[in-house]
Give the backbone structure.
Amino acid sequence: MSEKSNSASKHPGMGAIPGARGAIFRVWAPHAEKVYVTGTFNGWSKTSTPLIGEHNGYWSTEVSGAKVGDEYRYMIHTPVDWKLPPFSRIDPYARRVTNSVGNGIIYDPKAFDWGGDNFKMASWNELVIYEMHIGTFNVKEHGHPGTFDSAMEKFPYLQELGINAIEVMPVMEFPGDFSCGYDPSQPFAIKSIYGGPDGFKRFVKAAHEHGIAVIVDIIYNHLGPSDLDLWQFDGWSENGKGGNYFYNDHRSNTPWGETRPDYGRGEVRQYLRDNALMWFEECHVDGLRWDMIVYIKSVDGNDNNPPNDIPDGWSLMQWINAEIQQRFPGKISIAEGMHRNNGVTKDVGSGGAGFNAQWDADFVHHVRQAVIVGDDRSRDLGAVSKAIEHRYDMDAFKRIIYTESHDAVSNGRARLPEDIWPGKADSWFSRKRSTLAGALVFTSPGIPMIFEGQELLEDRWFQDKVPIDWSRVESERGILGMYRDLIALRRNLSDMTRGLCGQNIHLYHFDDGAKIIAFHRWDKQGPKDTVVVVVNMMNQIRDGYAIGFPRAGLWKTRFNSDSHNYGQNFANHHTPDVEAHEENNDGLPCSGKINIGPYTVIIYSQDR
């Protein structure tokens, strides 16, 4: 039997903190009358190991003999007149649990051997993100989700594809074995069936060794709502709501349940801040992506209804983002805002929320709609042009652009090829127009992102129990090759397309009748910098089509999405290099004639 101390611990920190002689336990339970810790170290005694009250509702004790790997829970006693029997709770700060309704496990967050990991993420103008769901990415055993270790097996594949950042859908403990992850029950505990905290750290370390950054999804707009020991954690609540971790009035209401954290309570703010910083301090991640921050900012998710604003939610985001930028320079904070709010990515000093980038609703909605519509004459080139040129706070790289994400292709919403022609995702039309949209992702200014399987023309909408079909690597070699080539051009790996890494864009040719647009991309306008992109959104070949060019000389065809290399049934329409002459066109000093196939994107650049 372990021995307890007879006084509160003076050691800082929350949760179970292992040491040389035992472990320190500290928990916040401001309405408890008594708190005990019970676990394998005291034979699961419910009364032999009391915690001592500190200030402001904190309780702590030191337990000699308690060690890493021991399981434990807290026993909460409420005031007698509440007439509640003693009940147990999982530690809110537990880094490891047996499962979402099980026990906490004492874990040493400093024990993992990082081997001198000092990875530096690519600059944001060269970042290419791959959104991944661990449970479906690389499943090895039928009926069981994928794991961190199984996902790691595909790192060479991702590296060859050109991916240099992974955005991992939520990996904190959630109910059951299968989930998209947006129902976290234990925010500090990394999903046990995926491999727990050590499995995740191996995942991050291996990603870094392959030159890949890791960005993690976090959910602070709600918690749970099921398997949620934080609910009425110490027995107290008002209005039948969630107790001290949550709002207990109308502000508790979210689309996912009445579990919005109380952003105005100091201890809850600290809890969420500690969680955000844990990913950097203990797990060496390179960024966070915050889920639907509009429900942190406001009660009803309406960005333009001030009476429903939650000022404490905005200030919480400012506080956490400012600390991340101060302590972890070069790391990225991404918001899923989806409400076109420039304030999200303004710096904190200017009153903004301090995010480095946000998902761009203007891009995904307009581009998807433009390629889904069946009638070429109905294709909205104006909306596509706005999507290409849009930016937040005058910075192109403050937006994440994509045509597929877990939100865009889940809950019955189809993958883009299926959306283009339901039941015929393998058709020529689906292939051509979905890859046209993909090419826009990699040629428009912004940080490009693709969703797992998109590069394989995956046609099934995303479900947490349906794994990626890796046989498509062989059957869709052409589409996979196209994405590989686009990523190489976007990252300027051949040193011929630096302009695609630049802030600058001039969409100078707009022909709504022919459904052709052309735009000029550049960084510094030095050698091998300037890039011209031509987009044909009609099922019609154009030969000898004149457009402007920013400079005279030979413009080489670096990419043609109509190539046989990408599909045997593609037209492979001849798109020769273009000799531009000094003749004004489209407001540019030079002009040249191009050939372009149907539903095709062409990328041109010069050798000098």
Observations:
- The first strand starts at residue 3 and ends at 4.
- Residues 311-327 form the longest helix (17 residues).
